[in-house]
Amino acid sequence: MNFEFMRTLHGFINFIQVLFGFAALFACSFIWRDTDLYFQFIYKGYGWQSLILAILFFTWIFAVMIFLSNLFDKDVVGTIGKMKLLILYVICLACLIISASLESWYISRASTGGKHPDSVYHPRFIAVTIFNWLLVVSYIVLILVTFFFV
Length: 150
What we know:
mainly alpha
């Protein structure tokens, strides 16, 4: 195992992405109502939420794959090349910007004065939005680190 990867800036950012991605997925998909806990894919009045969930899932899987590959001594940059890795990071970034923007829009729709007020969804939308924008910032930093220092 290559724990030296964790000591690099690239490794630390990748680890943070795995944590933020899991937190966003957890907040996005698990719903608590009274004593009920369930996994929800489709939301009445919030049709784009399924797309947000899919984007978060695929970007999280990508971050986990990069993290585990580097952790187990498989150099991702050496294997697929720096430019292809940067292109994949930009694709993830673009998807996360779409996801974060939609989730930000849903905050206003779920508020008490919104089109579909919901006291359960509203705080969850806020949490997912925060994690989404943190992921966007982390991908921007990771792109810059990869471009200039890897």
